[in-house]
């Protein structure tokens, strides 16, 4: 569902292996060489037809938007219809659901315009222009330093963004590329009145659930539709009943022509974070120190949550969103560790670093600047390993391990009785005490068992002396004496109870700053961040020197990746098809398994095989039959933030939505692995079939521009 994936590393040693599917290229930097590569693979558009800031509304990218910079969407009608993934809308659908109207389970379909539900806090960003401001930023840094006022990137960003926003009346966002080698200013028009139009039930949008997440094949019709509204004057405006649908400057045409292996595809979106300019030392540190701990703890927390969710639909509704987000991250990180080992990424990085070291040593000035860079990275990562283990256990137990810690922290931060009471009243109904009790006991046990006792606060030490290793009794003591352990106690809460509440005292008895400051580890971490930046600069300079194409790590700026439809061979002698069909839904169907249920109407329609014009004819003559494709895979390079990105054919027409990666690709946050990185996409024809045949949303279908050529 949400994923992770930029690099030049594989091309450092073997440049000829830079294939069309590798790279998330900056949308404004499609140069002649990149344009030619894409056209050789089948693209029928020019670079200016993809992005052209001087011709608003004329290019494909004008129809692609960022949803709060956590997902991507695209405009598909003249009246502001915006399509994205259902998992991008999951929290919104969860928040508007109640036990009586559970839209996660039942779906939501706005049959009339007045039924479109406003989503408070939602923002959509339309990119208007990207400017290279490297010289301006460097001049500003130099000016501040000359006045004895050195500032970090955050302060410089604020100053630059404020100036550009005032000058352009657009939202300005400054991004650093290659750790400060380049700086770009993106200018956005931001709309804040978004309304939910369509969201299928999870049996359609998330069939297979957590079990099929990151897997191939999948059969998820993962989509949701919003509408963007403006003020009566057509300009961005906060929600009002008088607002009107956005009159879109650009929309995507939907193609029914389909695709086949080898067909060109491109994905435009807002990929979140990659770290492909990471050293072998950093990757080894993550995969052997922090990730194994967080993976184990989160996995057990998920088991506790699911055991209660399976017992009670009301608990499932309360925790669906939290579990969904936790499971996505945990499975991604767990598979990442396995893929880093399977593909020998640390060894490959070390091989590349031999070339880097040789290049550094070949020039006296480079050697003076970076000669001991790699050795220092190894040494400093080893030095912080112990402290990082303690910090990770603390973070995953006492900070993230329960919702109780967050509720109490918010109450503390409120500082005033009335605000604290309001916070408690808002947050407490979202949890289940029984479930949180079990999470608390697990967190306490893991915290005391694994964190060095020198970090314990005085109250925690007192409890340890009193209860020893009887963590169940320790938990019961805290639980039974806390106001937050039951609705009845919460009802009798008075603000004066907060400071002396034993559970609150337990959580507050130690702070993350104490883990950062112990033994000077924060200074080491700052040094490591600086060494990491220098490592990126060295790689960047080496590739410039050697004339190699390169692109920066993903950082929530608009990017384009290109590739082709194709099969997957996850392991030797196993080949998976390039598409899945509705047959897989019926084959996996299990009414006793929550992840593989089908709604009655859904099952009936699937069994009828009535695909209408949305189906795909296979075979000839009497052997001809119609199928409904659900998902397909390409080798486009994506990561988290690309969810909901339009998957476009050679003419720039919409054929699907990117929604997932495959397990074999999950080392690609650090290293691109040719042949294994796949982009899992929902077929737009399955979306249309769902809107048409399942939901009967004829009013929405009439808005769409559909081509069958």
Computed structural class: alpha+beta
Instruction: Please estimate the helix content.
Output: 40-55%
- So how many helices? 27
Mean residue pLDDT: 93
- What percent strand? 15-25%
Major sheet characteristics: 11 strands, antiparallel
Q: pLDDT below 50 for ≥5 consecutive residues: which ranges? A: 1-20
- What is the straight-line distance between the termini? 31 Å
Rg from Cα: 26 Å
Count the beta strands: 25
> What gross morphology would you assign?
globular
Question: Characteristics of this structure?
Answer:
single chain; 709 residues; alpha+beta; 11-stranded antiparallel beta sheet; 8-stranded antiparallel beta sheet; 27 helices; 25 strands; 45% helix; disordered N terminus
Descriptive account of the structure:
The structure is a single chain. This protein has a domain at 295-520. It is α+β, with helices and mostly antiparallel strands and 709 residues long. It is 45% helix and 16% strand. A hairpin with a 2-residue loop joins strand 16 and strand 17. Helix 10 runs antiparallel to helix 12. The longest helix has 30 residues, at 280-309. Strands 2, 3, 4, 5, 6, 7, 8, 9, 10, 11 and 12 form an 11-stranded antiparallel sheet that branches. Strands 1-15-14-22-23-24-21-18 form an 8-stranded antiparallel sheet.
Summarize the structure in short.
By secondary structure, the chain is α+β, with helices and mostly antiparallel strands. The chain is built from 27 helices and 25 strands.
Task: Itemize the secondary structure elements and their pairings.
Layout: H1 9-13, E1 25-26, H2 32-41, H3 47-50, E2 64-67, E3 71-75, E4 81-84, H4 86-96, H5 103-106, E5 108-109, E6 117-118, E7 124-132, H6 134-146, H7 153-168, E8 171-177, E9 182-191, E10 193-199, H8 202-205, H9 209-212, E11 224-230, E12 244-245, E13 254-255, E14 264-269, H10 280-309, H11 313-342, H12 345-361, H13 364-370, H14 373-399, H15 403-414, H16 417-427, H17 433-450, H18 458-467, H19 471-480, H20 487-491, H21 502-508, H22 512-517, H23 521-545, E15 559-564, E16 568-571, E17 574-576, E18 579-581, H24 583-588, H25 600-608, E19 616-618, E20 625-627, E21 629-634, E22 646-648, E23 654-661, E24 679-683, H26 684-694, H27 698-701, E25 706-707
Parallel strand pairs: 13-25
Antiparallel strand pairs: 1-15, 2-3, 2-7, 3-4, 4-11, 5-10, 6-10, 7-9, 8-9, 10-11, 11-12, 14-15, 14-22, 16-17, 18-21, 19-20, 21-24, 22-23, 23-24
